[in-house]
UniProtKB/TrEMBL annotation:
InterPro entries attached to this UniProt entry: CysW_permease, MetI-like, MetI-like_sf, Sulph_transpt2
Sequence intervals crossing the membrane: 26-51, 71-94, 106-129, 149-167, 253-277
Keyword Repeat tagged: no
Protein name: ABC transporter permease
GO molecular function: ABC-type sulfate transporter activity
Domain ABC transmembrane type-1: 71-272
Protein function: Part of the ABC transporter complex CysAWTP (TC 3.A.1.6.1) involved in sulfate/thiosulfate import. Probably responsible for the translocation of the substrate across the membrane.
Top-level taxon in the UniProt lineage: Bacteria
Compartments (UniProt record): Cell membrane
Keywords of this entry: Membrane, Sulfate transport, Transmembrane, Transmembrane helix, Transport
Amino acid sequence: MEFKRIPPHRTHAQNRVGDKPLTKGLIIGGVVIGTLFILVAPLAIIFIQAFSAGAAVYAQNLKDPATLHAIWLTVLTAIVVVPINIGFGIAAAWAVTRFEFFGKNLLITLIEIPFSVSPIIAGVAYLFVYGAQGLFGPTLEELGIKIMFAVPAIFLASMFVTAPFVARELIPLMQVQGSDDEEAALSLGAPGWRMFLFITLPNVKWALLYGAILCNARVMGEFGAVSVVSGNIRNVTNTLPLHIELLYHDYNAVGAFAAATVLASLAVVTILARAWVERYDEGRAEVKKRMRPGGH
């Protein structure tokens, strides 16, 4: 016997916004037009302007030594920062979801501070801590250690702005999953490291990969904090976003757009990777299910 789903009856006063055809069309049309003009058009202009002088000029701009150095420094920053923040995110999620201690909610709030603080403010704060006139500046100078306006400052600023990305993905998932599987493994005699490698990590692998993708994209595109602490020195501390600004100020618009295509391509790859991870991330679906009213 086949059952047909009967739609819920609504009175005229219970209609949602957009249930009427005209309103629905206006909302959908407004969103589509806004997406095209605000998001798609600027991305399209980047590639159109980059190739406006021909493919040969585009390739020549990308082969410029300053551009290649900026790309290399951006990749190096991601290679250093992303693994550190993955480790921090795993440790933070483990501490918050597996231990009870005073100030746990405060710790969660502190981890998410970079989401609410302007990157410019973060860069200025690092200047006051590690700069020549900062808190540790004189001591670092005596030891011959240079952090500000050097590559280490880029690493520090990038770590600050991307610190919450992995932790924020892991904490809600590990709270929903609980520790039953881990307790079972320990009760069967599994060592702690073996339990972590073969029980905990497989359970959170998609959320971990998702957070790492977002962290990597933000590291490569970070501008504000890095511009304050790096000194923006060409061929020394110039990451790709800073190099694009320099090229634009040099009236080399085609070169700036050519360099921008690298970041735009990275954004497209990130979106595709994110969609792929979301497709297989059953844990994310479980978290969303539990967060719905009446979810179990």
